[in-house]
Amino acid sequence: MAYSKIKLPASATIIILFGFVLLSLQLMSSATQESSELGEMYSWLLVINTLGSVILLGLVAFNTYSLVRELKKKEAGSRLTTRMVSLFVLLALAPAAIVFYFSVQFLHQGIDSWFNVEIDRAMDDALELSQSSLNQRMTWHIKQTKQMADQLRDKSEALIAMEVGSLWGDSGALEIAVFSNQGRVLASSSINPSDILPHLPDEQIWLLLRQNKEYFAFDPGDNDEMLVRIIVAIEADQSRFLQVLYPIPVRVTDLADSIEFAFIRYQEMNFLRDSLKTSFSLILLLVLLLSLLAAIWVAFISIRNIVAPVKELVKGTQAVADGDYQQQLPVMSQDDLGFLVESFNQMTRRIARSRDETRAAGLEVENQRAYLETILANLTAGVISFDAAFYIRTANQAAYRILHIPVSHFVGETLSTLATMHRELADVLNAIQGLLEKADDIWEQRIVFLGPNGRQELLCRGTPLFSQHGARTGAVVVFDDVTDLIQAQKNAAWGEVARRLAHEIKNPLTPIQLSAERLQHKLSKELQDGSAEFLQRGTRTIVQQVEAMKRMVDDFSEYARPSKKQVEKINLVDLIQEVMALYLPSGIIFSTAFASGRVLVEADPVSLRQVLHNLIKNAQEAATAPCRIEIKIAKVSRNNTDYVELGIYDNGNGLNAEQIETIFDPYVTSKAKGTGLGLAIVKKIVEEHGGVIWVDTSYNGGAGFLLQLPVFEFGNFK
């Protein structure tokens, strides 16, 4: 239905236009003939056709301008329209120009052939032949008339009247009349009885008759017939004249008129030869111009209608390229282009349906991915995934908390690249990289390394990933920081050992001590001086060692026993300054990286004093003279929680890697005296307060310890 609405008006317009053009050209062609009634309208027709040509030229120019603008704007279908119009104009102009050229040549040669020497001679001969035929007839009638005049000479008027009727019957003339030189009719006879008076000559004929004594000429008759009028004198004195009217046959008259008209027309055409050439050439040019312009204009309309579906297809394709998959184009015809448009509509519908399905599937995948990311983000274990070439694809937040490096920022890199950038983790990263490259099945490995917080132990599990076809697609590594877990297990084991020691060792020590003292008391008087001194020295040693073992068991029991702390809000700065004041008399040089302020923490002041005393005593014993201890306080954030970080540094010899690994284990010490429980107790107290403590491995001027505690209030402090 849409096709008929668009095409029928255009077709009707084209038909009407060509009808007017053909009618105007036909009228103009007819007007070139002189006999045509349209000859006077030739100029008007020429103006009308010229005006039509100008209008068509304007339409073609307007369409050309519109097409050029579309080309500049790079509108859809403009290039195809240009190619089709150019091809049509070329195909129409080339044969039309050839036909026009040869038509003009044939026309000029044809017109020139009308006026050659043979035709000129033929026309002259025909005219001369016509005139000779008429002159011969005229001579015969003159001779016949003179014979009749001789028969009437010297006769009376009565005899003449009688003779005229006889002569008329024998001569075959239309009329015979005898009249005097005064114009009085003496006798007459005519083929028409109703004619009373003969056809008398007029004044001009009388004048010629008096001068020449005779008159003969061709005169027109009453019914547009041609007559031969002959007047001769009967008497020598010209007193009486004989007039005879002879008829000329119609055929002879027509032939003579035709020859005369043709001759005159030929002379006119010969005179207007160049004008005829110009006129016919102009008509032919107008025919060509009107035809070409009309054809080009029609070509513009037709090609635009043909290209219209292509434009719609291009616009639809651009819309689809921009993501508009709901684009539907109108089907304007049932031809191949209509089939193409319908196929495009089906394609967009299928694409839209596929897009919706893909979007739904993608949304489902995205939800699953977000779900998995949420799970991975909230896992305490670090998870890192790799592609087939062992390049990092994803990493969760726990990997950052455990390794203290933003692994997710190194997506597309290998663990070896991270190892070169973070030397402190080179051992663990290279170890995991080696396990990834060698393992073809699930693997598990415990890796110990020194991290920023001291000794750390990771439990790593790796799983290679394979496609449905068995090709390796990547791997996943899951690792946990089991340092605290192992330490808790160690603490639990030591606590169990302490309880057993308290039960199994401490109880027998008292009878041993009492028995030794009783032996000393009873035997010292009975033995000689040397033996008594030996006994006293031995029993004293036994008692001292038993006391030492009791103290050791008590300390060990204290370490294993849960603390009974009384938590309150204390100012950590004031507490540190109070403890520092106790050691100033001993010659320790303190340097602090904080000013007076308020840093409130919730803790047991007695336990924190014990922590500070143990750390300062260890620094004092390890430092070289003079002893210098530096104390720093800073605010840090970890896992959305604020902590106060306390650093204590000495100028001693520092710690080696082996000492750093076991520095917080019970009964581990490098000093000549001591039980080795000091730092173990410190670590236990700090952890009971929700904090952490580790060796600052980045400090090279001696030994440094960092501990972090949850802060309640961090006031005006720097």
From TrEMBL:
Cite the source lineage: Bacteria, Pseudomonadati, Pseudomonadota, Gammaproteobacteria, Methylococcales
The record ties this protein, via InterPro entries, to:
BphY/WalK/GraS-like (IPR050351), HAMP_dom (IPR003660), HATPase_C_sf (IPR036890), HATPase_dom (IPR003594), His_kinase_dom (IPR005467), HisK_dim/P_dom (IPR003661), HisK_dim/P_sf (IPR036097), NtrY (IPR017232)
Q: How does it sit in the membrane?
A: Multi-pass membrane protein
What residues does the Histidine kinase domain cover?
Answer: 500-713
In its UniProt entry, the species of origin is given as Methylomonas albis
What's its catalytic activity? ATP + protein L-histidine = ADP + protein N-phospho-L-histidine
Q: What's the name of the protein?
A: histidine kinase
Query: Which UniProt keyword terms apply here?
Result: ATP-binding, Cell membrane, Kinase, Membrane, Nucleotide-binding, Phosphoprotein, Transferase, Transmembrane, Transmembrane helix, Two-component regulatory system
TM region(s), chain numbering: 12-29, 41-63, 84-104, 280-303
Main subcellular localisation: membrane
Under Enzyme Commission nomenclature, its number is 2.7.13.3
Where would you find this protein in the cell? Cell membrane
Taken from the record, one Pfam family name reads: HAMP
